[in-house]
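Listing 4. Sequential folding, example run.
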Amino acid sequence: MSNGSYQQRRGQIEAYFDRTAAEAWKRLTSDAPVSGIRATVRAGREQMRATLLDWLGADLSGRRLLDAGCGTGMLALEAARRGAEVLAVDLSATLIENARERIPADLAGRIEFAVGDMLSPLSDAAGFDHIVAMDSIIHYELDDAVDVITAFGERARASVLFTFAPRTAPLAVMHAVGQLFPRGDRSPAIVPVREARLRERLAAAPRLAGWQLGRGRRIAHGFYTSQALELIPR
């Protein structure tokens, strides 16, 4: 995507997860002890990951899946255990290195971790049965988020599962407080989106004419709030 706002935010996210937050993210996505606040984020993410995997189904044999913004690869690994052939990409080389270290011997050859933009694999002519973007679109403005989801819809066959940050009062407060910190200490801002507006934009997108919104679920657990939506063929 050549959109300047997308490219700028992508650079901020890469720098944050590849350097500033790499060790913290590695601990958060493991069973290592974490603070009370991070424990609520871990628990919320576990619930969200379980939700998306439940939507994918228990048997993914013969299915090809793209994990877009895979982080340390926890969802990708479980999808591979269920039989999927998985390509998992993330901007952070540090997180991808950690993900590769976690591949068990019995999944060798079923999963590939790659450093790159979550849209870069979409030139693959084979396409994907499923594309999952868990908490990887939440940092982008609405226009860019819609463009990303639309691009996913052009390369998926069975479903596109993604999450966004719903615009709620608690999230608005956290966003405002975050702006008080020195710029160098901030993580890339989560961009709250109104669900009705997002649904409206996706329904009106010409390139998504063959798709419709399916299931949805909001998970709010302590300092973690995220909402999942499913795109399925009409």
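-- end of first protein; second protein begins --
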Amino acid sequence: MSAVTTLIAESAQVTPEWLTEVLVGSGAVPAGASVVSFDPTSVGTGKLGENVRFVLEWRDAPDSAPVSVVGKFPSADPTSRAAGVLTGIYAREVNFYQQLADRVKMRVPYCHFADLDVTTGEFALVFEDITPARQGDQVSGCSVDEAALAMEQLALLHSSVWADPALEGRDWLAHRNADGGLALSNLYQSMVGTFTEQYDDRLSDRARGAAERFAPHVTDWLGSDREPCTLLHGDYRLENMLFGAGPGAPPLTTVDWQTPSIGPGPSDAAYFLGAGLSIDDRRAHERDLLEIYRGGLAAEGVDLDADECWAIYRVNTFTGLHMAVVASVLVGRDPRSDEMFLAMAERHAAHVDDLDAFDSFD
């Protein structure tokens, strides 16, 4: 990773000289190579960060020099930007790439540069450009085969640091448990009314009922966490995934490490399967897909009992419901994000209902 000391936290301020410094500093190109110009294009659908692809023109660079890189910066939307700073997600993503990315076996983008201004919360990240690739679509969902690939990659992430004491002592990486649950509970309870009001008659009775019923149970949900724990992605969903779309592209790369935490692995699985698949496909295939995840853990030396895995998975159907409510209120609104959060809320509510997850609190 580059040792550049200058932080540029807005895509409009990026210069060829800065990109040269970043890529020479990371070892991507030798000293003497220089970026002479670039063509920037916005990419992705992220709400809390701005992602820009920079197509590069080089001078005195080897054939191996990257044709393009992707920069990530704070959101240009004031509401979303404030949410990113307030919740600490910008700091968490920078810290993930600085401290943990090289420990995990899951495919993540190589990071050329990661820096943060701790006083303002502004940050910049520069990644390899994963291409050719297709970003997942949370609204349309994915195929069962794509879900299986996601479970295989998830097992690689979790097994890398399963019950690893190296996760402890990092103040930016919270334990997702009852000790920290009061703040998350208060946050949810303060926002669930706004959530139901802003989507009003667009919400089904099932989704509205599940969202409201969950409010007094957030601490119960988080209190169900128990050892052994691992590193959670925390927002393991389709629009944070790049599926390889041509020769040479990795089959799946996971991005957007803004919400990592320490918690029970099957929580990420429940979150993904709850909204990544159509309701019918999830009902038909979730047991088999969860076994793919469990088998992937076993292949890496982690033995997770099937009944225990299912019990953790079942109570964590609430992971996605919590995210749909809180994130939809925190970030700036637009028609596409409304469609996405509604799809998530409806599918996660159906998941909670199908698995009788509220019975977990009896």
